[in-house]
Specification:
Number of domains: 2
Number of strands: 0
Structural class: mainly alpha
Largest sheet: none
CATH superfamily of the largest domain: RNA polymerase sigma factor, region 2, helix turn helix motif
Number of helices: 9
Order of helices and strands: HHHHHHHHH
Oligomer: single chain
CATH topology of the largest domain: Rna Polymerase Sigma Factor, Chain: A
């Protein structure tokens, strides 16, 4: 059974997993195991070790499911593969090509992780907008999301162009403040967990 991957479905899947739903766990296993194995094997160039690492990830996932706070399952599972391979390579002797792979694991980020960052940023922007007055939200949406010129917004709402500019400026200030805290969180995450 192929599981959909939008963020609402992702939350529902993670909730079912956390609650011990074996069907969801099996579906996730069936859907992700091969891709995880391919990634691990491409890093390690050792089928048996790659299988062991992937198997260990699934065992830990099941055993620790109640304690885990997974926001994005794709990101979590593939980050676990990278981390498992990194730990294996760190703890064992390896070749020059494996050292280069370790380097790439530490620096590169997958499209899934980048997508997760975009989703997190969008959530921060949405939460920031909720702090604003309904009028300010409306003006910001018209200006920055619907890309309507400030003069047209002013005419449509019966206010001055300067009022539109002030409201957009206020909204951007609130959004920047919230994004700054998000970037600090991302920085700390990658500083300590990457």
């Amino acid at each position: 059974m192929e599981l959909p991957k939008n963020s609402q479905t992702n939350k529902l899947i993670c909730t079912h997993l956390k609650n011990g739903n074996q069907k969801v766990f099996k579906s996730l296993f069936d859907q992700y195991w091969e891709a995880m194995f391919i990634k691990a094997n491409s890093i390690l160039q050792d089928r048996e070790v790659a299988q062991d690492i992937v198997q260990e990830i699934w065992i830990k996932l099941w055993n620790r499911r109640e304690k885990l706070e997974i926001i994005n399952f794709d990101s979590y599972i593939f980050r676990s593969v990278s981390y498992g391979c990194f730990k294996y390579l760190r703890d064992n002797k390896f070749t020059t090509s494996q050292l280069q792979i370790i380097d790439s694991l530490l620096v590169s980020r997958t499209d899934v992780e980048n997508q997760h960052d975009l989703e997190a940023t969008q959530k921060v922007i949405d939460r920031s907008l909720e702090e604003l007055s309904p009028r300010c939200q409306e003006i910001f949406t018209l200006s920055r999301i619907e890309d309507i010129p400030n003069e047209e917004i002013a005419f449509k709402l019966g206010i001055s162009k300067r009022s539109v500019e002030n409201q957009v400026s206020l909204a951007l200030k609130v959004i920047r403040r919230h994004l700054a805290s998000l970037h600090i969180i991302f920085f700390l995450y990658f500083l300590f967990f990457s």
